Structure prediction request, 553 residues.
Amino acid sequence: MSQRSPWVKPVLTPHRPGGMNKFGALRPQLHQSELDGVAIAPLLEQYGSPLFIVSEGRLRDNARHLRRAFSTRWPKVRHGWSYKTNYLGAVCSVLHQEGAWAEVVSELEYRKARTLGVPGSRIIFNGPWKPAAALEQAVLEGAAIHLDHLDELFAVEQIAQRLGRQVPVGLRLNFDTGYTEPWSRFGFNIEAGAAMDAARRIGTSQWLQLTGLHSHIGTFVLDVRAYAQQARIMAEFMEAAECETGCRIEYLDIGGGFASRNALQGLYLPPDQVVPGFEQYAEAIVDALSEATRGRAALGKPLPVLVLETGRAVVDDAEVLVTRVVGGKRLPDGRRAAILDAGVNLLFTAYWYNHDVRPLQPLEGLAEETVLFGPLCMNIDTVRASVMLPPLNVGDALVVSPVGAYNNTQWMQFIQSRPAVVMVMGDGSVEPIRQAESLQTLTELERMPNALRPPFSDAM
Amino acid sequence: MDKNQAASDQPSALAKPEVLMRLALSDNGFVFDPVTGNSFTVNGTGLAILRRLQHETDLARIVASLCTEFDVVPLAAERDVIEFANLLRNAFK
Ligand SMILES: Cc1ncc(COP(=O)(O)O)c(C=O)c1O
Prediction:
């Protein structure tokens, strides 16, 4: 008989005014089969699906780009890598090799940074809970401790007194920039006077020395004017605190929060059009800071080091998640749905981003509105509520990006275990950087009381 | 009576040929429904299924005939025909 035609899943696409073009798709169908020139399909075979893949090259480029944007504008700049954004050891180490300090917000993160070989003197210690033992270690190792509340101020003072040494500390500040929701639960408020109270208290302490100011105004902040205002307010407070207490502020730490090139849900425009580049953030911040510190040189006071704790904007687009289709269905309302082997257990950020989703291989057929569900037996497990994709078959792989920020730290061991993470290295080799979890990972910390061991009776 | 027999005794389970017959189909996949005025694009496989469903209600025969025209195993074709027929039932009432 004659040649049989290839079988492509049947598709019926309604014509809506303004929707389809004559080729049937809303936009050209994109696919992604490689990361940094390395084919993804063999990695999926070797390490299993789902699979997180980190690009070492992109991570380094991003870190350098950030540094360049700021250090070409301000004399002294420091990047503290925000561990909570992604504390996979290999990710942190790439950034430490690029010169970043560690910015940690818990004893666990502090110890992880130390284990990775970061000296305490290159750790920025933030966060609302720093246990006594961790605080003492941080004092002994010379970490930059940013005080969050008065109890912590007194705790550090006691440690300093016991050790008989004067300890430099930073104050975490909060205030209203007029552009972002104030994060007033962290640190000392400027408008209410709590920040100056704390500065004065430190000024009178024999054991403490105020050397730094810190604040973090929010995350995914799209308006660069928020940062300009932050810089002004912090610089003003620096002058006031120095004047009132005689302290010398060595650095201003403006926290993180630069947006990454991800599509925030509810934003109409694509990320390329709304997310400022590092240069735009840098220009707004440094312009405001230069203006606000103009008088310092004349008084012989050095300019403060500008500290950044940029997290998501550095790591987000340096990682993808590859996932396979495990089933498909039509929903009662006619929409097509696909079930994936990765869901919100691995993609915490699917709650607020519309991640980019591309087939690993070009797929046949007309793109159609598709819902992507994860594998969890939970109604909330939706990776994308609506995305245009060609018909999907079981086994087809999809590449979800950007996923580098907050997913490898906020992922859950819930119903499914966590998959492997590999890194495509700068030289094109691929290294596993976290093994896939197994049943043993789930059970190894459990202990079974003798009375609960099998055999189980079959009485109900 | 075996199960296949039972299925083919219920012609309307797959699709209603009388409804599908009213659709105007073109070879390049343009579908027009004169009752609602809606138009659609259907791909090649969809068109082949739709054409068969206009005249045929027996799933096994549709699948067998598709398997001669397309490079597909019967189970895969059957799965897609069931789902597509459901889509058509809901799109054209
Ligand atoms: C104190 C502090 N610094 C830095 C960051 C990193 O923020 P982002 O990832 O938005 O840059 C955070 C995140 O919440 C933070 O709380």
In short: Chain A touches chain B through 21 residues (CB under 8 Å). Residues 224-245 of chain A form the longest helix (22 residues). DSSP finds 14 helices and 22 strands in chain A. Residues A 82, 85, 103, 126, 216, 219, 255-258, 309-313, 405 surround pyridoxal-5'-phosphate (CB under 6 Å).
